[in-house]
Structure prediction request, 193 residues.
Amino acid sequence: METTTTIGVSLAVPEPYGRLLQERRAGFGDPAAYAIPTHVTLLPPTEVRPAELPPFRRHLAEVAAEGRPFAMRLHGTDTFRPLSPVVYVRLAEGAADCADLQERLRSGPVERELQFPYHPHVTVAHAIPEPALDRAQRELADFAADWTATGFALYEQGGDGVWRKMREYPFGAEPPSPAVPHQGTVRTAASPF
Prediction:
């Protein structure tokens, strides 16, 4: 059996907002709160073989080099219920930029098909009892945050289920040397990101 690594790409919610939302998520009883940094997903959990990481990293650097900073604004809550037991903070600004970015990220060595249509958001409660989901949606209904997105990061999920940053990719940075053509396939992981 070949070894794989589960990776994901996301746009971090900066401090103090990231920590605040993480603490609120923990307060709602979500056991994943401290295993997942507060983020907007660009590439959901994806299993890759070790040999697939170098060309994927080059692709990420190339996408970041072409990227430019953009405004992000979070405001209010919504839910994916009943389809999925998730409450999230909405993107009031930056959603179109995130959608474009995630499409470019998935067009390289990792041609990742999505389980659901892409909908950028910041999860604040997932797979917890309905009353706790209701509470999260109600208590964060007035939450708002503004910042400028200046890049994204590659994360790896450890055997303990915790997501750890592997590398940041700032927008407009010089890309690496030309990429080697990629061969092979990538499988998807089931865990939420």
In short: The domain at 5-170 is CATH 3.90.1140.10 (Cyclic Phosphodiesterase; Chain: A,). Residues 179-193 have pLDDT under 50 and may be disordered.
